[in-house]
Every structure is written in structure tokens, then in C-alpha cells.
Amino acid sequence: MVLVKICGLMHSEDILAVNTAGADFAGFVFAPGRHQISLEQALSLKQLLHPKIKTVGVFVNEPVTEILAIYQAGAIDVAQLHGKSTPAEITQLQRAGLKVIQVFERQAIDLTSMADYLMVDSGKGSGQLLNLKAIPHISRPLILAGGLTPLNVRQAVQLVQPTMVDVSSGVETNGHKDADKITQFIQQAKEEAIYEDTK
Fold this sequence. Notes:
With 199 residues, the chain is an alpha/beta fold. The protein has 6 helices and 10 strands; from the N terminus they run βαβαβαβαβββαβββα. Helix 4 links the parallel strand 4 and strand 5.
């Protein structure tokens, strides 16, 4: 069954929504931007999070030392790396115990990457959907992000068959996470997976 990550969580009510809806991963953005939170905020939010939900830290060209400090503080289980990441940096994070997502934005997927997950994205928070038919089917764990909403995620899962789907602005109303949209998104993503399994 496809996994679901809800990203850009900032408030206690966001955590309540993902707990209730049954997300698999919760994303905390440490990179500069509209959804950026501090380590202190992330630790506070994680205390409210269902223990089964893994936390993902989103970084853009952050030094490995800073990522490791956030991990060692107990805020994240997974590092999502945007920008340039060397094989040595990815290996260093993994040796410390982190899982790593390497993000490919509007570029070919590097199948030689050492990362645990490979993510295809249309661009940080662009809200634009990728050309789903152009995404190759690969044997590596693949995460689909960019422009997904409760209205299109079912078709996206059917076409791409990713390991995980990732959404942030697609489950917001007026710039804030919408609990109903989060629930609908997860139901649509996982219903498609159930349908696929029973065909």
C-alpha cells in the first residue's frame, strides 16, 4: 500500500489532523520558506505526534553537522535533501542512523544515489503537477511530490505507482493545513492502492 507524507506541519492542530487521518510520515521544514519551523517547535510538535508516524526534516543545502544536530536532538527520523548532496554526505547521515530522501526537481533521477528514497518533485511548493506519464518506473523506493491534491492523487498513484506520495500546499485552505483535505488525500491515495491490489 502506498505511504503518505504530509509536509509543512507547523501547528498543534496540524499534528492532530495527521494523527486522526493516519499519515505515515510528517514533514517538518527547516529550510527557509513559508513553512519553516525551529528545532524547538519541531520537538514540541513531535511530542504530540502518534509514535507510529515517522518525522522527516526538509533541508536545502544544509551542512551535515546541522542536520545531524537536529536528528540527535530527537526531532527527525528521516532527512529530505533538496539541492546538491554528495554520496559522502548521504552516507554520513545514514551511518548516524538517519534514513535519507534525495530530491530530484525537474531533473532525471540518479539511480546510483545512495539515498534510501528517491523523490521526484516539480519544485519546492510550486503546486505544479509533474508530467506523470514521463516518470520512469524504477525498482528503487520512489516518492512522488509536487502539485498533488485530494482530487488528483488517486490517478497519480495509479499512473506512477510510487512507494510514497508527499503533499503540503495541496491539503491547505488559505495557507493553513485543512484537516478535511488531509483526511480526503490519505483516503484517496490508499483507496487507489487497495483497488490496485485487488484487481
